[in-house]
Amino acid sequence: MASPRTVPNFLAGPYLERLSQLRKDEMQLRAALENPATLFVPVWRTQSFVAHLDQGFAAQFVTGLTHFGTTETQEVILLGEFRGQLCFAIELPPAQTPGFDPSAEFVDLRGVAGDLVRDEAGVLAYARAMVLWRERHRFCGRCGSPTVSAEGGHVRRCGNEQCGNQQFPRIDPAVIVLVTDGERALLGRQAAWPPGRYSTIAGFVEPGESLEDAVAREVREETGVEIDAVDYHSSQPWPFPSSLMLGFTAHASRTEIRRMDDELEDVRWLTRAQIAAGEVALPTTHSISFRLIEDWYDAGSATPLRQEPHARLWTSPVRPTPPR
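The structure assignment produced for this chain is given below.
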């Protein structure tokens, strides 16, 4: 059986072939857009198109570019090859109500991602991230001129020839860490969260800072706890809007909690017994937060965390109701 660390986190893994070599091939891109079998992932107001199933949801792809009123390669973003077909993301005008399959609808991906098949969730997340990047870089950051799409949607070039600035997709690295003293895990909650929700410590990496330094700083700033060992665990793309979560575990050298800022409303040490009893609600199972907690918990318990009858998870946001 594969080691837990060899299994990709949700929204990660080889869910498609990115085919970066095609991004500069205008002829192949045009041929793909004319192919009626080509898949399109529409994104409308940052929402993703899904269909309701008896159990969960399914990504709803659209075939045929004519549905979108354009034939220009500059209007689409090449994602790669998905299930044997080329696949593109396309942004729909926010003021226009999409008129696609009435049995499906546009929803916030954050609320339904865990109920999608893994590869479909990955493609929808990738499309969402690219569309958001495109929408936020329509103008040159150097001279302010409008930018134009190039290389399959993966470059934004300044339209001012005297400037010629190029912009590429960016991600925001963030560290997320489970701190333990061996028998207890350190979890905190934000004031805006519903009562009972707790999670691991997280924060963005700052310029000129290593990942290890960011872990130590975030833990110290948010909890007052000091750590003396940091180990990389795994990573997870998190396109809400454009983060890459870099997961770590850390050992506490000083366990006294002293909140040094207002980032967290409460911080506490929890034993496995307290977690199993449902004293706090844990993050959803498709998050890297849960995986960090789960791996620590299972390493010291005869009963896996997912089999503990009283362990609690965050309740998901209100999901869309199936069409009647």
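Interim note for the steering committee: The chain is about 20% helix and 30% strand. The two ends are 43 Å apart (CA to CA).
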